[in-house]
Amino acid sequence: MVKTETLEDFYRQKFNWMPENLRQDIGHFNVFRMEDCIGPNKEAPKYSRRDFYKVVLIRGKHIYHYADKSLEVAGTSLIFFNPHVPYTFEQHTPDPTGYFAIFKEAFFTERLRGGISALPMFIPGNKPSFILNKTQDKYVSSVFEKMLEEIGSDYVYKYDLLRNYIMEIIHYAIKIQPSETLYHHTDANARITAVFAELLERQFPIESPTQRFTLRSARDFAEQLSVHVNHLNRAIRLTTGKTTSDHIFDRITSEAKVLLKHTNWNIAEISYCLGFEEPAHFNHFFKKHTNLTPSAYRG
After folding, report:
1. Which residues does 133 contact at the CB level (< 8 Å), separation at least 6?
2. What span, in angstroms and rounded, lies between the C-alpha atoms of 162 and 156?
């Protein structure tokens, strides 16, 4: 599975250094110029989730792969990324310019009603990209420049100001019609399959008898991905030759074998962890997929 990129990974890959307060400050915030982080000697971004939010203003031509969609952007784009959806981008401009800010959700905790994740551009399934004209580019760029100036200051309330600047950009974007330049890339089916597989794998390993596997059906996953269940099923079958349910059942079976062999949990506990309402249902499921009862497999 594709590993989620952490803030530590970001700093290590881009700058080979780590802010001293990174691990202590769960609401970490920082802002950068794009040209300091993109170039021939910089590592290309991987298709993965990040454990932080990102607000990007970028000039040039790019293709962003975001969940099961691809977004072609040209000119100046303002794009919002959240920790729930994996993404990457193909750079088609040699020397793009712009800015980006990164922050953890806790940066806004208790200061924003409903939380940052409730805002339209951060809701999975909503459009994350806004095309800016020259006037809009100038305005948003000026806010980023204020953030760059403030982040280096010793003003005691600077993070309150930085928080306000991010909210200024967010509300400015909400007033702009989101870009409709969305199209399904030739490998869109592979991308939605990758997102499904990432969501499935994120629920494992089961490490405690109180942990529970909750996304157990194609419909559950479709709701999480904000796609129709038929679209999800079709994409996964075309990409892998197997049904969505086959993948889910295979993963449940695999985890069941691990728990039976490597824990001393009883059958009822394992049944509960894997999302079965009754141990009898788990027994029937396991025997159907392995030709053995859980007790016989455990030996």
Report:
1. 76
2. 12
- Rounded to two decimals, the pTM is 0.58
For residue range 183-197, what is the model confidence (pLDDT) as tens digits?
Answer: 444 467 777 887 888
CB–CB of 192/92 below 8 Å? no
Output the six-digit token pair for 192.
């939605």
Do strands 62-66 and 87-91 pair parallel, antiparallel, or not at all (unpaired)? antiparallel
Paired residues of 99 in beta bridges: 33, 57
> Is the peptide bond preceding residue 205 cis, with omega within 30 degrees of 0?
yes
pLDDT digits (tens, 9 = 90+) for 129-138: 899 999 999 9
Whether 63 and 90 have beta carbons less than 8 Å apart is answered as yes
Q: Between the CA of residue 24 and those of 28, 104, 230, 288, what are the distances in Å?
A: 9, 12, 44, 49
C-alpha 63/C-alpha 79 separation (Å) is 12
Please name the residues in contact with 146: beta carbons below 8 A apart, sequence gap of 6 or more.
165
Residue 196, CA distances (Å) to 64, 68, 113 in order: 18, 9, 30
SS3 at position 102: strand
The C-alpha angle 23, 24, 28, rounded to 5 degrees, equals 75
